[in-house]
Predict the structure of Transposase.
Amino acid sequence: MWEVGVRRSFKFLLRPTRRQAAALAQCLHDHRELYNAALEHRRTAYRRAGVRVRYGGQSGELKHIRADDPTGQGRWSFSSQQATLRRLDKAFVAFFARMRAGRTPGFPRFKGRGRFDTVEWPKDGDGCRWDSQPENPAATYVRLQGIGHVRVHQHRRVLGTVKTISVKREGARWFVVLSCDEVPAEPLPATGAVAGIDMGVASLATTSDGDHIENQRHLAASADRLAAAQRDLARKKRGSTRRRKAVARVAALHAKVRRQRLDGAHKAALTLVRGYDVIVHEDLRIANMTRSASGTIIQPGRNVAAKSGLNRSILDAGWGVFLRVLAHKAESAGRELIAVNPANTSRTCSRCGHCAKDNRLTQAEFACTACGHTEHADVNAARNILRAGLALRDAAEAA
């Protein structure tokens, strides 16, 4: 049975002509200039007059900006420029929220060429049009104001209703990202099975049934090529054509690692979703876990090299990507996903419940000092995670 109401994104490679690629680059450049100019406007108004400029005022000035620059800002979609101003406004909203929460605020920064890679059109049909040449059976096109009909490498069917269209630059490639509402979800048949999963570095994930999902270590596999490309980059003169090409080579290698990691996450998550009705995982704070141990000059950190290596291994495993993909697939398949506090799950015996630091002898070996139970440490932790998740579900149903 099909259910409706899920929001999904679809990402496709663009095949622009040389002229269209130049226009896409200019569109991105002009939107970045608009973002930076709007940020400078806010900074100057507050510094000189104590006035807070908001989105409404800046959006109202767009028509004058476009009229004064008809061959520049005036040729792009008005709604896409509004989306860029909303992006800046969201950055300020988040900044003030962090200040109120007592966290490190991080004032919105000006965007350099490498920090602004996306332009959004908020509504299909307003300055953009998906499948703009439906009469062409051999190819799919997206029409973008000021750029034209750009060919799309559509490798799968788009479901639901297209709401927003974004164009993103990744290295030398261009992609179109469609955000769709009312995407049909197809629940999978019930299996009657439940599982807890323990995230790790030796294995990406270990289930309570004892299955291990391999950690592919894509970054480590590309480390030699990346190191060579970065050494080559370090020797190039800033601003030169050769340096731009070296930067592109490094970016291409990182992009390949990112795509490999995402592909592995999709395959691993699909395996779990097909096999289990209920999946329990750790509620991990990955940003906290990978925080630097370097400390300060007054209070330097300890075991900095070891912590740096662990951080690199955690990020290479791609826990965050995997859990995000798992959440999307579980929602679409009608599976239940439960996140639990991971505290002491690796130190507690899954048989008798005894918790002690000495229970875990090594990274892979668990031996309870109370009852003598021995098991693979990750499997033991996954069973504790499953038990905690089922207890949370039972408590929620009883409430």
Observations:
- The chain has two domains: 3-185, 194-216+258-398.
- The radius of gyration is 25 Å.
- The chain is about 45% helix and 20% strand.
- The first strand starts at residue 3 and ends at 15.
